[in-house]
């Protein structure tokens, strides 16, 4: 589509509009006008950075070689902007506003903690933009010939459009080889980038509304009318925008003879707000050789002149003469390309005093990393500011550099993952003070997670923080009416009773699963059909029942296979599986259940029905004694879990299955039954669910359990189910498919016995292995979305109180509760949701408390005769 046409108008003397060359936008391409009549069409690309410090030396060297090759093949100029700005967490906390207004809620504590943390510590975001330009052109038609002028502009526009598209494709391909993600900015993103450039404080305090943005993108007014600051005060060494933001432009006009690859990392990772702007102008080979030969002649003549005068040769000239000869050979041979390079720094501050402090700190840091101190552009601040504008290609003085030196200026040092959405949550803070905020379901390939750590590293602490924050975000969405009745449900399999206190405080449902418990799950239960499921008609009638029987085979394999120390991985024989298959179908037939989904609403058979069917011989002679082996689960000491129909109603948003009282033999079976029940729930509804399996290695004691776990991780995404697996045993998962089906891996501190093994499993570099070994409690390496980030998991005071497992802190909390005379908060709807509360009522089993989260009532379930009875707690 063509650009909107604007007749030229003379710029008023001193008008701030002259600082805004952006005139029009069309489908992600910006048109810039310069005062000399030149027009330039550009596309802006945002590039995602890498955590360069964690790469091995071999990987770093490979990246620099690819980066050098990338710039050696670019025949056109580029502008690279590194923006280091203060991160405003209001884009994240505003989603918690419906809950944070309650002063004692977890949301209020979480929001207050983030506000305090950002006050004490400057949180920064680093973004990288590459400006790709077509060759500039100037319209030479006489101004009074408007029709001819418009035709010339349209023709030049089409040519520039095609040229920009080709160059964007070339750059995208080259950067993807460096494993850098490239995103092309659309029109609204370009406008917001320029709005922030002309006033970071203005863009934060008075952001462009959607209405103003649409007006700016329409043909109703010019972009410079929207973006230009109200005033710009120019001083000899600074600028002041809108009388509230101070700027200073510095130029780096020299580099040392030898630089280490990535030497700018220390400058870019400095915790100061700034813009670092690079201009690259590649020179043709003939032009580069002519320039270098002229330099070579100058060096040689200077040395010869000093020799004839009897003076000692200048050592700098001698070294320069030696360096330039091999450089000429490499450029003549096509191994290198010469660039004219310009580096500018734009420093921002809210006051003049703060600006002076930041400028001095940047001067010192730049001198440390490059041995050259940048120059403050005295009496040239206006020109420097125009040079740093995105899309400006007139930097003034330039520094000739070979492509190898350009590659050493590799700037993409960042791992920013900040994508606030109504369902995103704060994961933690990186070592570079960058918050990690991500939506598990929408932003990642899948919502599955794998946590690996020895005991005491903080993995359950991290999971509890995730639970609280996910419930907070979900409750906030419910308050805004965005859930459509499908709220999040979190189910935890707890082997050490670590989640009971959190469950009680949040009003969740706690279920003690043991042979002596009154709670039952029938493994024969069939999943219910989803309502309004479009693909249900495509399913064959045999699918649901056949899949159910296949999963029962896995459970029965764990229960009945002959295992011994000599053969710990034994499974049922082919004859045993064939007999069980016939018997399982017969059990369902006897209760009136067939492959017809309409019959799946009937009560499912029980394990004792399978035992009776095997004993009857209706399905064939039981020559291997399956019925005899099944007796201990039907009438023996292990029968408590299998004797009755399911009497647990999993309708609470937060459910904890406590399996601590199960012995080592029953625990894997119980985990499989619970996971199977959760799978049936996910199949039967569109409610998003999170299943947390603490100590996933329990299922891996049996081959059947490992198969079921891998199948769940592979298929969970399609059922809107997220699975978090926690383990201490990396060796069990070396050949597992679970790791490949988890979009997020979190590696906590490892000792010397497991660090190398973990490094091989996750392909960590030597630096990453060393980092993992040095982590403190609450720190971990997150592998997510192609990024590797050392992260600290921070919590507010209330979050920490509910998540901690430190015995001293728990004892102190118990002592404070005993000495406190403050009565417990009243039970009622206002104390549901994610606000901490203490439940004062118990069921017949003192530990089996079940209460509700909004919108569910605060209730307790007393299992009786295989059904559930709900009683309100007073």
Automatic annotation (TrEMBL):
It comes from the Bacteria. Residues 837-849, 862-874 have a biased composition (Polar residues). Residues 814-874 are annotated as: Disordered. This is TraG P-loop domain-containing protein. The lineage of its organism: Bacteria, Bacillati, Chloroflexota, Ktedonobacteria, Ktedonobacterales.
């Amino acid at each position: 589509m063509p650009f909107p046409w604007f007749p030229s108008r003379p710029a008023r003397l001193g008008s701030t509009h002259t600082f805004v060359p952006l005139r029009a936008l069309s489908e992600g391409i910006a048109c810039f006008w310069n005062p000399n009549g030149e027009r330039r069409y550009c596309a802006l690309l945002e590039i995602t950075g890498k955590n360069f410090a964690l790469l091995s030396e071999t990987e770093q060297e490979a990246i620099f070689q690819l980066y050098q090759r990338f710039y050696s093949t670019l025949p056109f100029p580029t502008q690279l902007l590194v923006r280091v700005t203060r991160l405003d967490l209001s884009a994240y906390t505003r989603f918690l506003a419906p809950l944070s207004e309650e002063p004692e809620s977890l949301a209020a504590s979480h929001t207050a903690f983030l506000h305090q943390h950002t006050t004490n510590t400057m949180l920064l975001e680093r973004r990288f933009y590459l400006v790709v330009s077509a060759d500039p052109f100037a319209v030479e038609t006489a101004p009074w010939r408007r029709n001819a002028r418009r035709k010339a502009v349209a023709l030049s526009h089409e040519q520039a459009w095609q040229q920009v598209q080709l160059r964007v494709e070339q750059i995208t391909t080259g950067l993807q080889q460096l494993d850098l993600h490239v995103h092309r900015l659309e029109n609204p993103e370009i406008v917001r980038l320029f709005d922030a450039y002309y006033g970071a404080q203005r863009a934060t305090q008075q952001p462009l509304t959607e209405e103003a943005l649409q007006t700016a993108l329409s043909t109703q007014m010019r972009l410079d009318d929207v973006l230009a600051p109200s005033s710009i005060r120019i001083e000899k060494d600074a600028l002041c925008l809108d009388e509230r933001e101070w700027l200073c432009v510095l130029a780096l006009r020299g580099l040392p003879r030898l630089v280490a690859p990535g030497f700018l990392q220390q400058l870019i990772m400095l915790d100061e707000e700034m813009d670092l702007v690079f201009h690259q102008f590649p020179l043709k080979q003939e032009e580069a050789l002519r320039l270098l030969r002229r330099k070579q002649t100058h060096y040689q003549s200077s040395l010869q002149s000093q020799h004839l005068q009897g003076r000692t040769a200048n050592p700098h000239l001698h070294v320069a003469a030696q360096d330039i000869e091999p450089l000429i050979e490499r450029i003549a041979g096509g191994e290198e390309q010469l660039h004219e390079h310009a580096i500018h720094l734009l420093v921002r501050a809210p006051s003049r005093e703060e600006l002076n402090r930041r400028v001095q700190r940047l001067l010192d840091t730049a001198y440390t990393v490059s041995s050259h101190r940048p120059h403050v552009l005295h009496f040239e601040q206006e020109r420097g500011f125009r040079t740093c504008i995105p899309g400006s290609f007139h930097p003034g003085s330039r520094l000739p550099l070979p492509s190898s030196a350009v590659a050493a200026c590799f700037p993409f040092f960042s791992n920013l993952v900040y994508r606030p959405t109504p369902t995103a949550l704060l994961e933690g803070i990186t070592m570079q003070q960058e918050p990690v905020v991500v939506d598990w379901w929408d932003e990642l390939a899948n919502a599955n997670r794998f946590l690996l750590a020895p005991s005491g590293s903080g993995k359950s602490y991290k999971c509890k923080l995730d639970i609280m924050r996910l419930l907070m975000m979900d409750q906030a969405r419910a308050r805004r009416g965005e859930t459509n009745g499908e709220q999040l449900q979190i189910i935890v399999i707890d082997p050490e009773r670590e989640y009971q206190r959190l469950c009680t405080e949040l009003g969740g449902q706690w279920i003690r699963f043991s042979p002596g418990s009154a709670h039952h799950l029938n493994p024969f239960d069939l999943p219910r059909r989803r309502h309004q499921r479009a693909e249900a008609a495509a399913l064959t009638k045999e699918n649901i029942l056949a899949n159910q029987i296949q999963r029962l085979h896995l459970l029965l394999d764990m229960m009945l296979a002959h295992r011994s120390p000599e053969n710990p991985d034994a499974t049922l024989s082919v004859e045993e599986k064939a007999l069980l298959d016939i018997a399982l179908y017969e059990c369902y037939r006897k209760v009136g259940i067939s492959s017809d989904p309409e019959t799946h609403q009937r009560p499912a058979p029980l394990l004792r029905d399978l035992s009776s069917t095997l004993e009857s011989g209706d399905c064939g002679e039981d020559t291997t004694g399956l019925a005899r082996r099944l007796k201990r689960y039907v009438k023996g000491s292990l029968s408590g879990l299998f004797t009755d129909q399911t009497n647990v109603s999993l309708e609470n948003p937060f459910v904890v299955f406590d399996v601590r009282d199960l012995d080592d033999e029953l625990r894997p079976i119980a985990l499989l039954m619970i996971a199977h029940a959760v799978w049936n729930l996910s199949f039967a509804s569109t409610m998003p669910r999170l299943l947390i399996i603490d100590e996933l290695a329990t299922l891996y004691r049996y081959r059947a359990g490992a198969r079921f776990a891998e199948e769940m991780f592979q298929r969970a995404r399609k059922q809107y189910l997220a699975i978090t697996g926690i383990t201490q045993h990396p060796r069990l998962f070396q050949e597992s498919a679970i790791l490949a089906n988890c979009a997020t891996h979190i590696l906590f501190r490892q000792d010397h016995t497991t660090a190398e093994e973990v490094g091989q499993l996750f392909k960590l570099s030597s630096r990453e292995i060393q980092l993992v070994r040095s982590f403190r409690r609450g720190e971990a390496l997150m592998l997510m979305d192609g990024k590797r980030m050392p992260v600290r998991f921070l919590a507010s005071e209330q979050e920490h109180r509910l998540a901690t497992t430190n015995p001293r802190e728990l004892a102190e909390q118990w002592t404070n509760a005993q000495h406190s005379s403050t009565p417990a908060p009243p039970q009622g709807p206002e104390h549901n949701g994610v606000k901490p509360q203490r439940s004062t009522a118990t069921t017949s089993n003192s530990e089996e408390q079940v209460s509700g989260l909004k919108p569910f009532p605060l209730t307790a379930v007393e299992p009786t005769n295989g059904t559930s009875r709900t009683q309100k707690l007073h």
